Amino acid sequence: MLSPRTSPTRDIVSLDGLWRFALDTHAGAAPWTSRLLSPLEAPVPASYNDLFVDAEIRDHVGVVWYQREVRVPRGWAGERVVLRFGSVTHAAQVYADDRLVAEHTGGYTPFEADLTGIVHPGAEFRLTVGVDNRLTNETIPPGTVTTGPDGRERQSYLHDFYNYAGIARPVRLCSTPPTFVEDVTVVTGRDGAAGIVEYRAEVAGEAVDAIAVRVRAVDEAGRIVAEAHGPEGVLRIEDVTLWRPGAAYLYDLVVELVAEDETGATGAGEVVDSYTQPFGVRTVEVRGTEFLINGEPFYFTGFGKHEDTLVRGKGHDDAYLVHDFQLLQWTGANSFRTSHYPYAEEVLDFADRHGIVVIDETAAVGLNLGVMGGLTGQAPTPTFAPENFGGITGDVHAQHLRELIERDKNHPSVVMWCLANEPASNEDGAREYFEPLVELARKLDPTRPLTYAAVMFATPQNDQIGDLFDVLSINRYYGWYLFTGDLATAEQYLEKDLRGWVRRFGKPVMMSEYGADTQPGLHSVWDTPWSEEYQSDYLAMYHRVFDRISEFIGEHVWNFADFQTSAGIHRVDGNKKGVFTRDRKPKTAAFALRGRWHGLGGRKPGQAAGD
Ligand code: BDP
Questions:
Q1: Any idea which residues carry the catalytic annotation?
Q2: CATH architecture of 11-176
Q3: Which residues does the UniProt record annotate as the domain Glycoside hydrolase family 2 catalytic (predicted)?
């Protein structure tokens, strides 16, 4: 799905701002049919949970309503009118006046409603959105809704971040011409010093047969460097400037739809639609135990992150976007994983422009009932049994994967798809569950490697899916959940474990999570868990191990910043494994990482530039 962009033929009106807001319990029946009678207003984009000093809202399970009036620009006569949501978490029903115009499930991917003919240029309409935050074993991520003795519904889930909900990303009203560019795909390669750009443009709408497609690639100085005709083809950019980690370079692919002229000659008339797709020329490849970007070994340094800030929850915020990337660069991080869901498109656009490498993850987190058994001592429930996640969950997961790849396929920053976080890959049924998903991902995008983040219980001995993937991403907490406070023992177990993955699969291995909860300001001369020194020593121990394993291709610390979780005895106002606090102040470990990562410069320890 294309990102909304203005062009000579396309306009955008932002619908961000304050909307009327009400819980469904206060909204009356069919709240879309009239003005929402509520004293509350909620900002878009933002999660709604932390805005109000009201536990009923924060803990609400079910639907909430957002509403506002929208005036369609009067200059849009004859245009298509499209309403586009960056995301609604987790399910949306959208009404234009009394009419249902869209429904979407999946809280982290965009969707559109075509309002052409339903709303009218110059006129106002009432836009009402129902937002459902419920998670079940038919949603990704999954969860369970139960009814308590007081008759109130309660939501539980197996993932370790707060179930923020709402309209957390920008909402826009967009115009396109009646004949329009519906999709663009760009795949890049190299031929010596030249860049090879395969493109495909999909055209939809009226009189498509009378339309010709022409494209041109434009460099950052505005020079046209290649041109072609036709809905698909190959462009050659001589002396190409590559997109490199830490040194981004973007070209624009300008796609134009050209009408017939008055003699009926196709492609000789006026430009009826124009869309500009930025792209970077770079290659990604796994060869043996190496991860190559532009043919050069790349060593990942960085973090698993979250979209999580005070008050706005998972709401997208450009100020935090800029500041977080500043902190990434300050620590010497060259990459991050979009744990545990697709992030806002604005984040990926920014990564493209600033040369930060991204591992792009679906929202499939918590497909692991064994974790519950581990924490509670109860007998584990089989994760992939038909009554759990062996049924419809896989189809929903596939749909999410499809939407992720369709959205993010053109981002040069995205170098790998991560299909799930900590699935029960050690359990029976995991292979049957993941095989079709791997096949689908490879069909949709044959160019990017695939990974999944392996849970502690999945060992080199019992994991059932590692051979299906290209890179093994390992989450481990030796020295935290196991051998707490005993880094010497933790070090031995960690090394044995990682070497086991290398030996069994012969593929590149990276650490996708390692971290220790840390209370800022707590200091100790001993190996005291929760102290700032322990976090630094814990990370240093992992780094010693990584540096001894030549097949190792990267390290992503868990987590970039402290983040909110559901309440529980394992969490003190959230997860504190951040190297930065929730308000982005560095803990001691941030300085240690900065020393190490700037020294590495994106290469394996001991590997010189150009090796
Ligand atoms: C891992 C999960 C991550 C958690 C982390 C932790 O992948 O989401 O936040 O553990 O416990 O199992 O801190």
A1: 422, 513
A2: Sandwich (2.60)
A3: 284-598
- Atom 5 in ligand 1: residue holding the nearest Cα: 160
Exposure of 420 by Cβ count < 10 A (0-12 exposed, 13-18 middle, 19+ buried)? Answer: buried
Tell me where in the chain the CATH 2.60.120.260 domain(s) lie.
Answer: 11-176
CATH architecture for the domain at 304-600? Alpha-Beta Barrel (3.20)
Question: What letters, b where the CB count within 10 A reaches 16 and e where it falls short, cover 462-497?
Answer: ebbbbebbbbbbbbbbbbbeebebebeebbebbbeb
Cα 450 from Cα 300, distance rounded (Å): 15
Q: Is the pTM of this model over 0.85?
A: yes
Return the structure tokens found at 120. Answer: 């009218």
Determine if ligand 1 sits within 6 Å of the CB of residue 564: no
Query: How many angstroms separate the CA atoms of 603 and 536, rounded?
Result: 21
The model's pLDDT over 523-572, given as tens digits with 9 standing for 90+, comes to: 999 999 999 999 999 999 999 999 999 999 999 999 999 999 998 888 99
Report CA(477)–ligand 1 centroid distance (Å).
Answer: 9
Give the N- to C-terminal CA distance of the chain in Å, as an integer: 39
Q: Which of 558, 566, 573, 575 to mutate to test the pocket of ligand 1 (most atoms within 8 A of CB)?
A: 558
**CA 221–ligand 1 middle distance (angstroms):** 44
For the domain made up of 179-279, the CATH class stated in words is: mainly beta
Task: Quote the radius of gyration of the chain (alpha carbons, Å).
Answer: 25
